[in-house]
Amino acid sequence: MSTRTGKQTVVLSNPPVVIGGAAIVGKKEGDGPLARYFDQIIDDEYFGEKTFEKAESRLLRDTLAKTLEKCGKSAQDIDFIISGDLQNQCTAASYAFRDVQVSFIGIYGACSTMAESLALGAMLIDGGAAEMTACMTSSHFCSAERQFRYPLEFGSQRTPTSQWTVTGAGCILLGKQGNGPRITHVTCGAIIDMGIKDANNMGGAMAPAACDTILRHLQDTGRSLDYYDLVLTGDLGSFGRSILTRLLKDNGVDPEGRYEDCGCMIFDLERQDVVCGGSGCGCSATVLSAYILELMNQKKLNRVLLVATGALHSPTWIQQGESIPCIAHAVSLENIPE
Amino acid sequence: MSTRTGKQTVVLSNPPVVIGGAAIVGKKEGDGPLARYFDQIIDDEYFGEKTFEKAESRLLRDTLAKTLEKCGKSAQDIDFIISGDLQNQCTAASYAFRDVQVSFIGIYGACSTMAESLALGAMLIDGGAAEMTACMTSSHFCSAERQFRYPLEFGSQRTPTSQWTVTGAGCILLGKQGNGPRITHVTCGAIIDMGIKDANNMGGAMAPAACDTILRHLQDTGRSLDYYDLVLTGDLGSFGRSILTRLLKDNGVDPEGRYEDCGCMIFDLERQDVVCGGSGCGCSATVLSAYILELMNQKKLNRVLLVATGALHSPTWIQQGESIPCIAHAVSLENIPE
User: Fold this and answer.
1) What residue in B sits closest to A315 (Cα-Cα)?
2) What digits encode the pLDDT tens for the residues A154-200?
3) A35 vs chain B: nearest CA distance in angstroms?
4) Average pLDDT of B21-40?
5) Greatest CA separation for chain B
6) β-strand partners of B101
7) Which N-terminal residues, if any, form the signal peptide (chains A, B) (predicted)?
8) Residues facing residue A332 across a β-bridge
9) Disruptive mutation site among A49, A56, A89 for chain B (greatest number of B CBs within 10 Å)
10) Left if phi > 0, otherwise alpha if psi is -120 to 50, otherwise beta: which for A178?
């Protein structure tokens, strides 16, 4: 049974456990600093399929299979698959799970989707509606480019604030019981729109949403930021990260030394020509499901606040001159001593 | 605290209550048989905005305001807004709630979204994560046509199995306590794809998903279909309704006399030139939030199984030759004697 604390935070009384996770990524991600943590690195952007969209869908399907295999579970152990992606109408997920006879909850939170999925999964388990949930998201550089920007063939120039959509899928299997890190609190964000209209500056657009959710989480829980070993934003990239750092400082919270961003971790920003770093809901999903989970299982990290951010625009609304509404959901992952 | 029964059904131990609801619809819907139940009928497809997409977003925003006004509540009483729509990247909802400082959970289930929203809201309330949720969806004929099919200016012919996307938004305010009908069970569907590739035959594509979820619900709960006064599909339309009727009979369940479809109710199929009837997630949302809720409050209906169905395709995947994955979520609404 969950309880609420403060305005936006839910306390999970029997904190659901991260039973395990897996991540499959693209070639470029497999050339980055976190390569050895990923379960599989695919050879090309098509992954044996005929289109980028189908390749992304297969990333999700295979990542679920890999997670179940690692955890010694079968699909029939799962009560809900909670998943979404960046494709038009969330189709990577819908097509991925056609052959898995499990209740499916489709979600959309742009790049915040992984935290949204974990938040929902944790609340459903703690509330008794599920024993086990698969929380997953994916993104794919090529499907996202033609969905949100231009076809790859157009060869558009990248602006100084742009980011590189991660090709990859991550899955976390959450359960009622087990030995892994637990989700103790979730803070689901409200929509924040500070008027930024440049769809190539998502880090700048999303940083205020991350700030709002972090401050709300701290206020609701009575915690200070140094309660956490790591505050991990989803994909603000280097530009958004610097804005969030300043916004937090302006609000009397100093994140130095305990703040990182998945978008800055998954690529080598000096070497890999990704401008401000990674983005896409596959970014936080893969970094969390592979690298962070490993560090938590090794007790190198014991308290992590995942704050995945999403830019909730579409090409249509941007073409109509609108700004970018953003959101950030926070999930508190903690190793709790037995 | 919720419990599970059978493979896909959740029993809500303290069934959340429908505190109230509202629906705002377009001119064509306001010319249909249910006109007098709707809270507002807008004059034109633009609703004072410059684009169809913005008009749809305003439908959601105004429907929330109307619901809160009718229920004597304010936005700050709501713990979660759970909402989605058919626009590319669910933008009607994301843009609608930019100025409402409430935790937002974005969902996507195509035309099944209203049941998905109610299912999630009910589980979150019963599990203690929320005291009150606003469950909402919208669709808009003009934004859906250019999103899924062709621009209106193209003047495409409608095929014999086509449906007419409802312009409208519906909102149900769910709470822990109150006097309205209660949500006692939810059965979240698995994805079903029977290989239909015609995006103008969504009723036919979705009917097997509705059948699967209804049979699953009956099996999980041990109920027979005549437990319900009304089984209400979201928007199969007349063609899909006839297929579902046959599929249920083939499985030994006779729905005659207690089965209706929102898509066949919201328009006069003889007079209004909508071919097989209404569709879009605004269809079940407005029929439920206005007409069905009124009948339940008057005790003319006491046990309703809402089964909203969704076609989870996108234009991209259809152009790539794929079939249509479908889903149906069921929510059991019951007047429970004091």
Assistant:
1) B88
2) 888 899 999 999 999 999 999 999 999 999 999 999 999 999 999 99
3) 30
4) 98
5) 56
6) none
7) none
8) A185, A305
9) A89
10) left
ipTM over 0.90: yes
**Inter-chain CB proximity A1 and B79 less than 8 Å:** no
What CA–CA distance (Å, rounded) separates B62 from B254?
A: 40
Confidence label for A144 from pLDDT (cuts 50, 70 and 90): very high
Amino acid in the structure at residue B40? Q
User: A316 and B87 in contact by Cβ < 8 A?
Assistant: yes
- Residues of chain A in contact with residue B190, where contact means CB-CB under 8 angstroms, are 97, 100-104
Burial label, B223 (beta-carbon count in 10 A; 0-12, 13-18, 19+) = middle
pLDDT digits (tens, 9 = 90+) for B58-110: 999 999 999 999 999 999 999 999 999 999 999 999 999 999 999 999 999 99
| Cα gap A245→A250, rounded to integer Å | 9
CATH architecture of the domain with range B2-175: 3-Layer(aba) Sandwich (3.40)
**Residue of chain A minimizing CA distance to B129:** A2
Q: Do domains B2-175 and B182-334 have the same CATH topology?
A: yes
Give the Cα-Cα-Cα angle B113, B117, B118 (nearest 5 degrees): 120
Distance, in Å, from the CA atom of A75 to the CA atom of A288, rounded to the nearest integer, reads 21
Domain A17-175 sits in CATH at: 3.40.47.40
- What are the distances in angstroms from CA B319 to CA A53, A218, B296, B313? 12, 47, 43, 10
Question: B182-334 is classed in which CATH architecture?
Answer: 3-Layer(aba) Sandwich (3.40)
Contact check, Cβ <8 Å, B107/A108: yes
**3-state class of A19 per DSSP?**
strand
Question: Domain extents for chain B?
Answer: 2-175, 182-334
Q: In the structure, how many helices (H) and strands (E) does chain A have?
A: 10, 15
pLDDT of residue A31: 98
Q: Which one-letter amino acid corresponds to residue A268?
A: D
> Could you give the C-alpha distances from B323 to A40, A79, A317, B201, B209, in angstroms and in order?
29, 25, 28, 11, 14
